[in-house]
Amino acid sequence: MTSRVHSPTAGRRRLRNTLRRVRDQVRLTQEQVAEAMDWSLSKVIRIETGGVGISTSDLRQLLQLYEVSDPDQVAELVELARVGRRRPWWTQFREALPAGYLSYIGLEDESSALRCVSPVGLPGLLQTEEYSRAVVEASWWAVRPSAHGPATATDRINVRQIRQREVLHRDRPPEITAILDEAVLWRQIGGPEVLRRQLRHLVTLGSEPHITIQVLPFSASMMNMLSHFVLMEFSDPADPDAVYVESAFDHTLLEGEEIETYRNAFSRLRDASLAAEDSLTLIEQVADRLA
Question: Residue limits of the HTH cro/C1-type domain (predicted)?
Fold first, then answer.
């Protein structure tokens, strides 16, 4: 029996992975499933990619086709289908924010570890509210000025604050390791006072036992050419690791073999970064210079 999930995104992900696996075990193609269930092929594909949820009645019929009869396994998969059809808090922002970003939030909500690399700016989970607002005002208008207005800017800030409450303050928060380029510490987003308070906040967070902050210094003999990314790990083997990659124009979730590239990149960047204690000392020194 695998562990329970509460996030609809994680529930759909675990269910689709299981359904693909058991279909392969009984050696049925997607076309054969569609014919046997009297479904369209696109419905089978969308269920297996997580594009749509599946009703519990459809799932029970599908499991009969797949020869899944163990009562505990059937009950577990039916519960995943129910979880996958819930409306989590982030659905209220569905019209305002990119789908890839919202999918990331759903997996972040279930993660046991987050490995973040931020060559520009700070991970949203580590931002103060005033720094978040300054980041949005400094960058978002320049990227997509015609597609987003003040309401959406407020939505982005609100989402970051809710994420912090839901992730950092849950009973068992994830282990977080964030690698920041040193340039992030000096770029005065919002002005020196906003940045100083943000840096003090980083020092406070970095003192938590489950949060590690490391700085890739200017003196490092390595350059990070990657976009901001987060490697997400999960406590249950039924949930494979995933990577969220964010650039100015794209929000992408990756799974499978591509993850190893990001895992290796994270490892190399971490090795080139200052130790956690030295990183917090540097952050404090920069904050003092802004006082």
Answer: 19-74
Q: Among residues 22, 57, 84, which one ends one of the domains? A: 84
Q: How many domains does the chain have?
A: 2
Q: 91-98: long-range contacts at Cβ-Cβ below 8 A with a sequence spacing of 24 or more?
A: 93/155, 93/158, 93/159, 96/148, 96/151, 96/152, 96/155, 96/156, 97/152, 97/155, 97/156, 97/159, 98/251
Specify the long-range contacts of residues 135-144, CB closer than 8 Å, at least 24 apart. 135/189, 135/190, 137/190, 138/189, 138/190, 139/248, 143/248, 143/249
Domain of 181, in residue numbers: 89-290
pTM of the full structure: 0.83
Comparing C-alpha atoms, which of 146, 208, 151 is closest to residue 177?
Answer: 208
Q: Which two tokens stand for residue 175?
A: 């282990």
Phi-psi sector, 50: left (phi>0), alpha (psi -120 to 50), beta: left
In a domain, 273, yes or no: yes
Statement to judge: residues 145 and 233 lie in one domain: yes
